[in-house]
User: What shape does this take?
Amino acid sequence: MIFWGDKPFARLCLVLICGIVTAKYITCYTTILYYISFTLLLAVLLSTFLTSRYRDYYTGFLLLLFVGIGGYTRYTMVHPNMDKTHYSHYKSKDQVLISAEIKSIPKKTTRYSCFIKVNAIGSHPDSLYAVTGKMAAYFNLKDSIACHYRPGDEILVHGSISALRHSTNPFAFDFNDYLKTKHIHHRLDINIGSHRSTKQNLASAIEKAANSIRSKAIGTFDKYLEEQNHRSLAKAMVLGFRNTIDPSLYKSYTSTGAVHVLAVSGLHVGILCQIILLILNRLFKSSNIEKLLKLSFLSLTVFIYVIITGASAAVMRASVMVIIYYIGKYWAERVNKYNVLSLAAFLLLIYDPYMLFQASFQFSFLAILSIMLFYNSVYEWLFTYVELRSRIINYIWQMIALSIAAQILVAPLTIYYFHKFPLYFWLSGMVAVPAAYAVLVFGILMIIMEYLAPCLNLIIDYILSGIFKIFISSIQTIERFPYATFENLWLYTHELVILYLSLIFFLVGQHAIKAKYIILSLTLFLLFVGSRNYHSNQRVNQSHITVYENYKGHIIDIFDGDMCYNLKSTSIKERNIEFITTNNRINKQVKSVIDLNDKEIYLNNSFIKNKSLIQFKEESILLLDNTFNPPDSILPINTVIILGSHKINIDTIQKYINAERWIITQSESMYRQRKWLNWCSKTGNECIAINKTGAYSIDIK
Amino acid sequence: MSVRKIRKQIHFHKNQRWAASIIILTIVGIITHGKISKLNHVKAGYNNEEHVFILKQLKDETDSIQTKRVREKSKPKLTPKYFNPNKTSIEELTSMGIQEKDAKSWMKYITKGGKFYRVEDLKKLYSMNDRMYNQLKPYAILPKEKKYKKEKSKYKESLTRNSLKKSMNPESNIYDILEKEKLNLDSIQYFAKKDELFYKKEFASRRNKMRSGINNEFIISINETDSIELRTLKGIGPVLSSRIIKYKEQLGGFHNKNQLLEVYGVKPTLLSNILDRLSFEGPLRKIKINTVTLEELVKHPYFDYSTAHIFINYRIQHGDYRDINDIKKIRIIKDYWLEETAPYFDFEPSL
Assistant: This one.
């Protein structure tokens, strides 16, 4: 088994994670949890003073129990239901008056959106309550005032509040779920003229300074770097400002597995710390006070960098780890890296337990853990076959070994979230990591030189532009290599868990040199393979119809084995259709998509479309739109899908159609949707309104 | 798992316990402090008077917009009937659902000399809003005034009554009812429209059928038609039809619906409306690609001078074109252009 002796926080962290995961799936909002946690804490403290032979054991047991229940309590504590200061307890109507602070720069999409921190809420100006909590605010796209709001600005709003709804489209990315991991449970819709700025900035002095440094740094990059791509990369890699990256360039980075350098992460914090320590070690020696000064200065710099770059999970993790590591290094005999990582995770999860469910947190910790566990083995593997004498080749192999080691634990998660895997990650890593070093060094130098000696920035600009040109062209070249990305990969949650368990048992078996764990690991792996085969077999003869939810119209996919027939409203953009349907199609392992919109007649083995009528295996489907002509006699149909713009009289429809189910898509107007629902309730027909029930799937036998 | 192994998993030695306890106590302290300060912040309430004043203003502004909208929605729907706005009465207006005070202001407008010459003049009324106007507009009848109005109106009245009588169902007693009530023309029309026994519908539909001798379902072969037949299509007049014929002559015929879009004035919406009346079958005037001269080729709309030159030169260098594959060998030629032009080629060899 694992030796926990030198990594106490690893155990505590695992138990904390168990508590948080339990709280997510088995929620119980009650204040009794506080009393239980408090009692356990007292028990732990008291037992420390007891004298008993088994004190170390039962104190340890109580400590583990406290941390587990504490994790559960902490998760429920931050939920709005348990937080009595949250604004959701004070809003009585949907129309509310709010005093809030802008927390992010308004982003332009279909509307201007930003996050706000609510300071006061009420339905009437004379009954305002001081509250806490965050919301997503949406301004009208034509609002010329909202686009100029900046973080820290105080605003007063009269708007409409609504709870965030889950996406019902199968396997689609749920943005509202993602917002909930950031403690945002409601949205506020604000019309033009319904908000005012008080002209005050509520940000703290540190936040103001950080925002000011950030905007000046952005201005410096805009001033010197000529090309738009260079500017956007500099802002992303130095400041964590990713809003301006060209989508095609971003896609190149994701395809080659180099996207991690575009987000400010532990790599950047590590580079920054190395630079600072390089300077500090020359200024200070090794007395205790000087060590304390070094640590303080390092902590302050790292803290400011965290604030400037937006305090993402990866940056916070790296900052906490760096500070703990150097505390240990300066004052402890030895530092266990797993303990440091566990302590960093422990502190971050106590601060915000929802972080556990953020992809950036998972990737960040898994990558570091993977490097810690596997780097040495991978690096030394080559030495069993080859002797590396050249320093350059040794350096190259170090970079490759680092990339491979990081990917061992991260690859399954990459496939799970993004459904693709970049084959040339090791090659892009060799380019991206040195480029990140160079960009960060010269980028920070450029920002500092803007104040000290702006003329030097012309030289730095020349160097930076050269670095970006080489970096971008290398990544784009790698992207064009054959089989650069394996796409359309699908991993179910249970498969991911089985795979990780298999890996864990393999590691335990290797560490403890016990065959039973290796056998268990292999068994789990076989289970994983069995699950893959089972799902593949299921997909061979699959027959489904999915009607997706989209407020602009209808999107329908008919799955027949590995083919997909698609019908959609012309008013919906391709990008939105891709967003809604891609994951479901990858899950079904669709190889070809046939657009039926232009095809009046289409024939295939088990699929026939003739204008409005579709016969798919045993299922007959009628598409009720403006091309439908009432037949002479009653048409028996399994499913009618109402697409809108038809001229049928709802009250007399049963003269023409006798259907088992009626699916009302969002292409139909709201007025007619209500009419259909009324008709269905009068006639006893089964009606499914996508607007109300969400996306709907039918399995065809 | 043995007891010893379990104990190993839960064992923390003294320093570890103390370190963990101190860290946890610190964290609990910070969290508790944070909670208490949040609670105090909430208990203190929100007392910023300036903000309260601004929020009051905001609320009033947005509420007034909202109230207007709600008022419009909450007004009961009118039940209009055909009426003459200049000759109506308060009773008639209120029977249609218009509020009494609005009806009174209407009558006041008329008695003071106000007159409605067109339906749009209804908007002059102070109480008239968009919703009311849209509901009343189809029912407002304003007969055109002319010099010999009185005579004509009588003639018109009698003509209408007579024609109504003639075209009514003899078994219906509606005409008797109408005569008995001595209703005015407008009301008769209103009743006539509503009456199911009155087969003006059939009369109208038959009238409509016989009004035109043109078969609106006849499929026109675009390559064999003339401009007169084309003019029968909706949206095509004399100018556009002659343009289409002229272009057809230049091309040698249409083989594809999209070619019609090359005619100036033919828009996609027009094309989609007339497409089901058009057929693209029929002979095309072919270009003898192996014997045609440069001057002749340039006359074709799809050939500019450079393209025609290339064709002729390639033929001189490589000999006659046997089929379309020979033309595909000219790599500079665009694929989609070739697709469109291919039907016009005649590969008859030169002697």
User: Anything to note?
Assistant: DSSP finds 20 helices and 22 strands in chain A.
